Amino acid sequence: MEWRTTGDVAEFLFAAGDFLRGERARNTVFLTVTETLRANPGQYCGNTDAGPAGQPLFGWWSPGEGAGEGPGEVHGAKATVRGAFLHTPPFPVLLSAVPAEAAASLAKDTLAGRPLSGVNAHPETATSFGDAWREMTGGRVGVHTRTRLYRLAELSWPHPLPDGAPRLAAQGDAALLTEWFAAFTRETSPPGAADASDPSAAVAERLSYLGVTLWEADGEPVSLAGVTRQVAGMVRIGPVYTPPDRRGHGYGTAVTAAVSQRVRAAGAEEVLLYTDLANPVSNSIYQRIGYRPVEDRVMLSFTPLGSAP
Questions:
Q1: Are 272 and 65 in contact (CB under 8 A)?
Q2: pLDDT of 12-23, one tens digit each?
Q3: Least confidently predicted of 197-206, 241-250, 279-288
Q4: Which residue, 1, 49, 70, 234, shows the most beta carbons closer than 10 Å to its own?
Q5: End-to-end Cα separation, the chain, in angstroms
């Protein structure tokens, strides 16, 4: 088995793009992150002080000669691809489903010496990767978040709707969106995210393609829902954020329904979102408006040996 790596998103997509698009829902984050990098190369600029180890890295896994076929394989003139990863520091490694041996090899060999804050993968794959990283470094591995991917089936608007109406966010909303994006990151805080760059860059990126919808009540924004660029006929909703003093009125559900309808009307064949499995309220709400479970993932956090507990 063999992992191949590159820092060039175009080379990565040439090698692994067919594999990723073959299961576009399960590979939604791979597809949307790489599409963002194609459109805006500076969006995931990494840690410039860390040299090459702080820059984005992409990779794909091909089995050895004579390996049996499996789900998601891509054949042809290019090598068979049965797995992929991407790492955009300081965020965790994003890893597709691969055999345990391939996950362990990625952690111990391919990414050896690269500072890692964690891994985001299917539970079995994440466990194999985390065990290998712990064995190699002596560090601690913990469960940070368990998430569930949902796909929109038939949209069902919440009833009754809360007061207000949706509108697309514009440049004049940039300061508010930056504040709310930062608040969302503080609340959810995946490993490394709290130390990431100012969210104003992410806000500017979303505004460049009308990627944020606001719900307004009494003339004031009360909730937001972001959406990724459409790629391979798929979009993913997120973040969805309502300030604490505005919660409990159904604004987040309503703005999610509104953006779901908008992207469907714009031609998206698949509309996806992730929820935190520790939040039963959001999981229930999204199912009530038509979202159905696809798969679960886990994000493991890594603490290097010698770090404070």
A1: no
A2: 999 999 999 999
A3: 197-206
A4: 234
A5: 36
